[in-house]
Design brief:
- This protein is mostly helical and 108 residues long.
- The chain has helices spanning 2-11, 28-35, 44-49, 56-61, 70-83, 93-107, and strands spanning 38-39, 90-91.
- A two-stranded parallel sheet has the order 1-2.
- The two termini are 23 Å apart.
């Protein structure tokens, strides 16, 4: 049961996104934006359920920051991404689940 919880909450913010080619250079900020998704950051239940890892973009940018601070910096990260034309991918929990399982089906 525990492994399903961990897999599901990790997978919804990672596995449905494109991967970087071995010879492709992407700045780490762009990488965080292009290869992770925030999930239902407007839902206090999902934030609790995912232990703040629904703020996956902020987690990748600031991996040593205590996770409970991610909601505080999220608006600043979103503004920074908008200023520099980087997509700030934010999806609802159900949509992220659907995208994840569709991707797993396609690549499997």
């Amino acid at each position: 049961l525990g492994c399903n919880y961990i897999f599901t909450n990790f997978a919804v913010s990672h596995t449905h996104l494109d991967v970087t080619e071995a010879d492709e250079y992407i700045h780490w900020v762009e990488y965080a934006g292009h290869h992770t998704t925030n999930v239902s950051i407007d839902s206090s239940f999902v934030t609790w359920w995912m232990s703040y890892l629904n703020y996956q973009i902020e987690h990748h940018l600031f991996p040593t920051m205590p996770q409970f601070n991610h909601p505080k910096i999220s608006p600043k990260v979103r503004a920074l991404f908008q200023k520099h034309g980087i997509k700030y991918d934010h999806r609802g929990y159900i949509q992220a689940m659907r995208d994840t399982f569709n991707n797993l089906y396609e690549v499997g």
